[in-house]
Design goal:
By secondary structure, the protein is mostly helical. The chain has three helices and no strands.
């Protein structure tokens, strides 16, 4: 355990950030799952789910939970899967 005042503060901040990051990661995972569940369904529903997932990913990237390129890659792959599902249906 930390002994110095600054190290104790750093430990407190770490706990707070870890909680915030886990909440954001859970939101991202849920948004992606919902978007993937719409594959093969109505195009309007898929587009709306994709927009929601994109927004969630971009928010996580802006807060520092995800790297911006990681978020961009996930958005790209999700859009490809949804588009592929629409063309095959």
């Amino acid at each position: 355990m930390a002994n110095h005042k600054s190290a104790l503060k750093r430990a407190r901040q770490s706990v707070t950030r870890q909680a915030r990051n886990s909440i954001n990661k859970t939101k991202v995972k849920n948004a992606i799952k919902k978007a993937l569940a719409t594959v093969g369904g109505p195009p309007e529903e898929s587009a709306q789910a994709l927009r929601k997932a994109m927004s969630t990913l971009q928010k996580a990237a802006s807060k520092g939970t995800l790297h911006r390129r990681n978020a961009a890659r996930r958005v790209s792959r999700l859009a490809q899967r949804l588009h592929k599902g629409q063309t095959q249906a």
